[in-house]
Amino acid sequence: MSLWSAAEAAAATHGTAQGDWTATGVSIDTRSLQPGDLFVALKDQRDGHDFVAQALQKGAAAALVSHVPDDVPADAPLLVVPDVLHALADLGRAGRKRMAGRVIAITGSVGKTSTKDMARVALNGQGRIHAAEASYNNHWGVPLTLARMPADTDFAIVEIGMNHPGEIEPLARLARPHVAMITTVAAAHLEAFGAIEGIAREKGAIFQGLEPIGTAILPEDLPVTGLLRDCADAAGAIVVGFGRDGMARLIMARPVDDWLKCRARVSGEMLDFTLATTGAHFAMNAVGVLAALAAAGADIRRAGAALAAWQPPKGRGAVEDLGTIRLIDDAFNANPASLAAGLATLAGLEGQRRVAILGDMLELGEDEIEMHRAIAGDPAIAAVDLIHLAGPRMQHLFDALPAEKRGVWAENSAELAAQAGSLVQDGDIVLVKGSKSSRISTVVDALRKSGQTADLKRGDDECSIG
């Protein structure tokens, strides 16, 4: 199916098209490019212009470039523009303009990607759904999502993130959502914002992009909820709060095996739904999703039933059996709020021992040492038997822990990963969590290899007995 003709793309970007081509997709990476894609030659760590020839050889319909690369024929199918990133934003803007469906935008300090995926799954069977891939939520991810959006999309879910002040509002105005949801506001990227109130104002800027009479979905149970409401009111939005006491209210979230049985009241309706996780924070976000879908005009009873098919993304709290242990892989990101949620999940699961393996939380600003030390006072710590730690910041938590809970502290994640086999034992339930840049995921990889090796050894033993 055609996504962009040469003429349409040229009109959208004010560029010059070479050749009469038709693109069926949009790509920024030759490794995942599909035949028929428009290849966008962005500059990041590498200059995308260096890969245009390769993209065309792999079947790209054309390439979006600011100049003709030396190794590309002068008559190659191209779309030539002054600035590739600006042109991608223009293409996204045009994609949004021609789409007549409903757009839901999601931001928050924690849970953006998993919540976006929840919304996508919940809408299954309710029309043509388009959602951001992975964590495509920045200055190129949002326009790329919109540029990839088919014109006949019924519901679009756009994820919007930030690292610094002033990032969210222009992306929200590009997406022009009918509904905008904030999952939560927590201490993340404090180096750039200085205080939680600064983060709240930046998150609240998403409401400035709302279409007229748009709806703001925001968490009710935060110290900065009032500030978020002020942001929504300033944008002229209809406000729907979700939480334990909001208009969209979580009434129950009860673990049953590896599932959560949930009950909520949304838009005046009592809904029962099931989630394939034991993390209660996911249940709260699901209530926010249902409120957002109701505001977008979806059937929320169908949406609630469809939520059972949702799975936590890799590295974001999925529970898996790994040899003789159970692993909560939550190694993609960390801040005090998300770590507290991870520890609460661990505390709610049954195992011979509950073991936490934690890496540094990054970008927390000048109070980062105290924030790491304060984890020792988290209520869920009482239910955790052993805590292994990696990184200079986590050494302060190690020092603050009761002696009986101290496991191994290592200077970095690689050093801890090298000891993976001795960190856990049969029957353990294990949480691995840390900021992505702490590379605590290397411990997850090592545990998986250790579990596979143990399975193989047990298999050999069984064969020798037989």
TrEMBL record:
Signal peptide: none annotated. It is found in: Cytoplasm. The keyword Nucleus does not apply. Pathway: Cell wall biogenesis; peptidoglycan biosynthesis. InterPro entries: Mur-like_cat_sf, Mur_ligase_C, Mur_ligase_C_dom_sf, Mur_ligase_cen, Mur_ligase_N, MurCDEF_CellWall_CoF430Synth, MurE/MurF_N, UDP-N-AcMur_synth. Residues 106-292 form the Mur ligase central domain. Its EC number is 6.3.2.10. ATP binds at G108, S109, V110, G111, K112, T113, S114. Residues 323-435 form the Mur ligase C-terminal domain. Residues 24-94 form the Mur ligase N-terminal catalytic domain. It catalyses: D-alanyl-D-alanine + UDP-N-acetyl-alpha-D-muramoyl-L-alanyl-gamma-D-glutamyl-meso-2,6-diaminopimelate + ATP = UDP-N-acetyl-alpha-D-muramoyl-L-alanyl-gamma-D-glutamyl-meso-2,6-diaminopimeloyl-D-alanyl-D-alanine + ADP + phosphate + H(+). It is an enzyme of class 6 (ligase). Keywords: ATP-binding, Cell cycle, Cell division, Cell shape, Cell wall biogenesis/degradation, Cytoplasm, Ligase, Nucleotide-binding, Peptidoglycan synthesis. Its main location: cytoplasm. One of its GO terms (molecular function) is ligase activity. The keyword ATP-binding applies. Involved in cell wall formation. Catalyzes the final step in the synthesis of UDP-N-acetylmuramoyl-pentapeptide, the precursor of murein. Belongs to the MurCDEF family. MurF subfamily. This is UDP-N-acetylmuramoyl-tripeptide--D-alanyl-D-alanine ligase.
